Amino acid sequence: MSACFASERARALPRDRYRVNHGASRHLSRIHIEISKAMEGERKDSVDKELPLRRCAEARLARALMLILSYAGDRLDIGGGCC
Predict the structure, then answer these.
(1) Helix, coil or strand: residue 45
(2) Rounded Cα gap, residues 83 and 80, in angstroms
(3) DSSP β-bridge partners for residue 55
């Protein structure tokens, strides 16, 4: 694809439609990472490095829950989505 064609195509696309909220995507990625680490900890039956008295899965799922509630904040109606 030539540079000229790419720039013409970029001008033709509505910019708002393809805008990404990087803050939200980073937050959701962090939630995904914590859940993945919880799965790995459960598979290995390991102890959390930061909280040595807790199992890894327990600590990571608690962190994921805190991140989910932090992300939801005032933006989402979590209670309405559960019913």
Answers:
(1) coil
(2) 6
(3) 47
* pLDDT cut 70: percent of the chain above it: 72
Q: Is the dihedral of CA 41, 47, 52, 54 positive or negative?
A: positive
Question: Among all chains, which residue has been given the structure tokens 């979590």?
Answer: 78
Q: How far is CA 18 from CA 22, 28, 51, 73, in A?
A: 12, 18, 41, 24
What are the tokens at 47?
């102890």
* pLDDT at position 80: 77
Contact 28, 71 (CB under 8 A): yes
SS3 of 65, please? Answer: helix
